[in-house]
Specification:
By secondary structure, this protein is of the alpha+beta class. It is 42% helix and 17% strand. It has a five-stranded antiparallel sheet with strand order 4-5-6-8-7, sandwiched between helices. A three-stranded antiparallel sheet has the order 1-3-2. A hairpin with a 3-residue loop joins strand 4 (96-103) and strand 5 (107-113).
């Protein structure tokens, strides 16, 4: 479903549709397929009204009714999108949806407009889209139960918490505005992912800015833990923005030193390979986290 189609569906929803959606949502931690009885109980509406609304929501693809399990319903991402979007619209944070800014493995990002005509970025988490089993294995600290919607809400909450801390600490991240459910609203962020930058006039300067931001984040108690060239946006003036923070860990985490080392190593290896910029990783790590990272690995320039 396109942004325009979703916006059209959203405008057609009525208050009772949202009430039934919310009633279904309240039960997703208890059931994979929510019984009609539980939805009726959560909504406080007459059974016939609930049934009518459930059929409307199913036709609009905001929920799913398994054909072999009558009177059971599943909330999907579009339904959760509608609930989150209604919250930010009624809160006068967002007034309109714009074009898609990016579709990733675990999120969709759209441009939004505030009532003050400010450009915003709306990031809807989509945990489980590629392979929820793989996600749960790699990022088990985020997920305690195999429910994609709940995992997405937790990821959004983690990212929003990190962005608030990081923005206050002066790290170049998108300014956070609001979080609801699996949606994080920030100022709009622009730039080219470092992985796709072909020509870079001053690669050493850009690397210095990225490492400076990692140092500020560390002083604020945050380690990205999944830093890659896809999480660094380079702007035309060679400023940078660091994005995608749901997997961050606090500096006191037992794996924080190893994760920081991996973040730094990934970046230094890329800059060495792409632009021949050589830095001693131990010196870099000692600057980011003085006295806290032991000597384990050196990255050396390739011969010639």
């Amino acid at each position: 479903m396109s942004v325009r189609q979703f916006a059209d569906q959203f405008r057609r929803l009525e208050d009772l549709d949202f009430k039934v959606l919310a009633g279904l949502e309240r039960n997703i931690s208890k059931f994979q397929r929510v019984p009609e009885e539980s939805i009726v109980s959560s909504c406080g509406l007459h059974r016939d009204e609930v049934r009518y609304r459930l059929k409307r929501l199913h036709r609009r693809r905001l929920i799913w009714m398994p054909s072999r399990e009558p009177a059971r319903y599943v909330l999907n991402y579009l339904g959760l999108d509608a609930l989150a979007l209604r919250f930010v619209v009624r809160g006068n944070v967002v007034e309109g949806l714009g074009k898609s800014l990016g579709v990733g493995k675990e999120s969709d990002v759209y441009e939004g407009i505030s009532p003050r005509d400010e450009r915003l970025a709306l990031k809807f988490f989509r945990i489980g889209r590629p392979s929820f089993t793989r996600y749960a294995r790699v990022r088990g600290y985020l997920v305690e139960e195999h429910n994609n919607l709940i995992a997405s809400e937790r990821a959004a909450a983690r990212e929003y918490r990190a962005l608030r801390v990081l923005h206050q600490a002066g790290v170049d991240v998108p300014k956070p505005e609001l979080r609801n459910r699996h949606l994080v609203v920030t100022e709009v962020f622009v730039g080219t992912e470092l992985a796709y930058v072909v020509e870079l006039g001053k690669p050493r300067l850009v690397l210095k800015k990225v490492l400076s931001n990692l140092a500020k984040a560390y002083r604020a108690g945050v380690v990205h833990s999944d830093m890659s060239t896809h999480n660094v946006l380079v702007k035309p003036g060679l400023d940078v923005t660091l994005i995608d923070w749901p997997q961050w860990v606090p500096t006191g985490h037992r794996e924080a030193p190893n994760l920081l080392r991996r973040d730094v190593t990934n970046l230094l290896e890329f800059f060495l390979r792409r632009w021949g910029v050589s830095e001693n990783p131990e010196r870099v790590l000692s600057q980011i986290a003085p006295g806290e990272i032991g000597d384990k690995t050196l990255i050396r320039p390739s011969p010639g």
